[in-house]
Amino acid sequence: MKRGFFVASFGYTNMCGIIGYTGMGNALPKITKGLSVLEYRGYDSVGLAARIGEEIATVKCRGRIGALEEKLKMQITAESHTAIGHTRWATHGGPSDINAHPHRAGRVVLVHNGIIENDGELKRELTAAGRTFLSETDTEVAAALLDVCYDEQNDPVAAIRAATARMRGSYAFGILFEDRADEVFAVRAGSPLILAKGADGYYLASDMTALLPFTSEYACLEEGEIAHLCASGVTVYAAEGKTHTPVWLHTDMTPEAAQKGGFAHFMQKEIEEQPHAIRQSLSPRTASGLPDFSADGITPDFWRAVGSVQIVACGSAMHAGLLGVRLFEELAGVPTTCHVASEYRYHPPVAREDTLVILISQSGETADTLAALRDAKRKKLSTLAIVNAVETSIAREAERRIYTYAGPEIAVATTKGYCTQLSVLYLIAAAMAHAKGMIGEQEARALVNTLVEDAPAAVEGMLAKKEMLRSLAELVAQREHVFFIGRGSDCALAEEGALKLKEISYIHAEAYAAGELKHGTISLIEEGTPVVALSTEQELYDKTESNVREVCSRGARVILLCREDAPVSASAEKTVRLPITSHAATLFAALAALQLLAYEAAVLRGTDIDRPRNLAKSVTVE
Ligand code: G6P
Q: By Cβ atoms counted within 10 A, which residue in 73, 254, 446, 540 is the most buried?
């Protein structure tokens, strides 16, 4: 049995989602159900194509699945046993009924995740050959190209092979051919697709969560493979032409894991799940009481040989990396730098033979992080991925991988993903420190204990204070600008606090090194500006307190997150006390407080918390 789960989806346009089915069952309720599970990825239009007798009926619209279901009631009354569906997040062409998938060209109807980079050139060629186009999408170009190839080859697999050979970019396609009743075809390169076997038929999806309502038997379609699904089974055509049937695996992820379970939002549920997620992520690596990554195929010798580390990631994962820098350098004495993945290639940091590149990604599909990974591999650097969604591109392509086991994260703004990344980075720091002799066995055991016991307990403690954080959020929610300040590791944590707030509440939030604020940004502090000050490091308390005084004297209203043993602040308006059982406890409690503050502020402002505007869960465009 495979441990883990999928939160994949993610093709280059990702955010888009694909589901397909063929079998004895009623396809349409399955497709709409699957699409509703895929909603969380963020989308602006939705559609499906269903085989009805000799024909393929297509229904699609801009907007939500509810709108599609209304249209469906009017347009398709007969039962269908073969269908494909899609949620689209616009890239080529704005959100509209016409640009929504599926797209049809001649005998071909398809849905697509990804971006065809040479669509302009292909479109010119196809137009010259007499093809016309209704939409602005690269997907319709792909459909037309496939239809031309199908006319030439009259064989679906050969046609798919010929058409995709002409495409540059990345794609996952679900395809129906008009004259191939009850058959669904699929192909992928660069965007994931998962096949699944249910009680009454076969499925494909870009995201395993979409299939959990129907089955837990799945198989991954590999890069370049073509799948042919029919009611009696699935045949996979490997890139070099050989065929095989999928080896079905079992996922122990439950449909409930991908549902709200009584919480108002997925984000709220995921914040609450953090103590469990930390324990899940650490327990396979701490059974002996010492940091032990042997189950991940990583030995102490490996850690011992690491001379320097480059951490590369995007968004919150990069923020986790910023804290990783501190942990690796302070605990293990390993020179470490952290890089925004989208910039990594333009100014590659100097690497040595013993440099380890660590890629962090919840989704495992973030395009910039993947590109950085490939770049590092080209340079023959050792690579290690810290990923949550198993079997995703980053996890597969990295030389080594450590899964975070946070469970499926549905809310766009990551919480438990980040929290488990941080706990794994902490454990890696302990493993490296121990392997390199920077700390002895006793200290390593103590560190493990703080991570396994104190960190989740500290998060639980902060969750118990959510009423208080709700009231503090009122101070923040009324304003349009909020600053987060801190020194040392609080600088990195402040970055995550600010990002959480702006992502979901749309309040402009900026993180600043507390001492740097006075070199310009303090001019933005005015009467009533909320400032969230972090003070988790005992030795930095006094200095941070001076900065709190500085902003207060300019009218700021300060929420101070500080250690339990810190003296009472003379200036802060509100204080949140953090446990001091260990450094990990203080850090993780502060993190939970920041998440709750952002969440409650967003609740007060009535935003779409799980699907904030303009954002996507997995950004698979560079
Ligand atoms: C998106 C998400 C962020 C996430 C970032 C990196 O921007 O909205 O929450 O931190 O991507 O994603 P990854 O899946 O690579 O961790």
A: 540
Number of continuous H segments (helices) and E segments (strands) in the chain = 19, 25
Q: Taken in order 274, 256, 87, 192, is the CA torsion positive or negative?
A: positive
- Distance from C-alpha of 312 to C-alpha of 314, rounded to nearest angstrom: 7
pLDDT along the chain (622 residues), means of 10: 34 67 97 88 86 95 91 92 92 82 97 91 97 94 98 97 94 96 94 93 92 94 94 93 93 77 88 94 95 96 98 97 97 97 89 96 92 95 94 89 90 95 98 98 97 96 94 94 94 96 95 87 89 92 88 92 91 93 95 97 94 78 68
Pocket residue to mutate for ligand 1, from 10, 267, 316, 388, most atoms within 8 A of Cβ: 316
Give the rounded distance of the alpha carbon of 145 from its chain centre. Answer: 32
Counting atoms of ligand 1 from 1, which one is nearest the CA of 421?
Answer: 16
125, 144, 145, 154, 354 from 122: Cα distances, Å: 5, 9, 8, 21, 44
Across the chain, which distance is largest between two alpha carbons, in Å?
80
Indicate which atom in ligand 1 lies nearest the CA of residue 314: 6
**Tokens representing residue 250 in the block:** 């079992």
CA nearest to 82, candidates 178, 10, 164, 156 = 178
Burial class (CB in 10 A: 0-12, 13-18, 19+), 568: exposed
Q: Under the phi-then-psi rule, with left for phi > 0, alpha for psi from -120 to 50, and beta for the rest, what region is 452?
A: alpha
DSSP 42-69: --SEEEEEEEETTEEEEEEEES-HHHHH
Whether residue 317 has its Cβ less than 6 Å from ligand 1: yes
What would the two tokens of residue 595 be? 């998440």
What pLDDT sits at residue 255?
80
